[in-house]
Amino acid sequence: EPEVTQTPSHQVTQMGQEVILRCVPISNHLYFYWYRQILGQKVEFLVSFYNNEISEKSEIFDDQFSVERPDGSNFTLKIRSTKLEDSAMYFCASSEEDIRQGQPQHFGDGTRLSIL
Amino acid sequence: SQKIEQNSEALNIQEGKTATLTCNYTNYSPAYLQWYRQDPGRGPVFLLLIRENEKEKRKERLKVTFDTTLKQSLFHITASQPADSATYLCALCPTGGGNKLTFGTGTQLKVEL
């Protein structure tokens, strides 16, 4: 069964450094998402992306964050200047159609980001 | 304010029994509600979706109900097995709420032999 893959599985970065988290969504999916989960807390929405532009973003997704689909397969999340509070598990997800139509999301297994 | 609440206490049941997990929401009008399973260190895995005009949905040993009057969904696992042990998340996409899911905190289920 096709799956969403994320790399790296664990990223350790010094505070203030830039980090790029990478995702390969399911190939025929058109909608892409990033969520994060701080240890012991709930999964929180960051951003949704369709047709090469952001369709929705949360308050967490400030100017330090950006997303890109640099080619036909990858979907990246960049954090420009990391803070301690950015430490979390970051999940990429994709869906075949707009989830407002009742579509499930398919999640990767996440990148654990640790900021020192 | 908008809330999605799941029982934060772990649910421990014996193998073979039916597990029932609750998801309550306030100040939402969801078009549908989804249930996901999350294992430690893994991403959520989609299980079932139920729409606002559906009362009940089944898939193998899983059953979901949706009561828009009570603003509640119940998730049942019948004939539970130790392999069902995981955290179960409810998530909803509110009507007119944008292309995103809002998750509850999840309930940890432990099925004991």
How would you explain this protein's 3D organization?
- The complex is a heterodimer of chains A (116) and B (113).
- Chain A has no helices and eleven strands.
- Chain A is an all-beta fold and 116 residues long.
- Chain B contains no helices and eleven strands.
- In chain B, a hairpin with a 6-residue loop joins strand 4 and strand 5.
- The chains are: A mainly beta (116), B mainly beta (113).
What's the helix and strand layout?
The complex is a heterodimer of chains A (116) and B (113).
Chain A: E1 5-7, E2 10-13, E3 19-24, E4 31-37, E5 43-50, E6 53-57, E7 65-68, E8 75-79, E9 88-95, E10 106-107, E11 111-115
Parallel strand pairs in A: 2-11
Antiparallel strand pairs in A: 1-3, 3-8, 4-5, 4-9, 5-6, 7-8, 9-10, 9-11
Chain B: E1 3-6, E2 11-14, E3 19-26, E4 30-38, E5 45-51, E6 56-59, E7 62-67, E8 72-77, E9 86-94, E10 102-103, E11 107-112
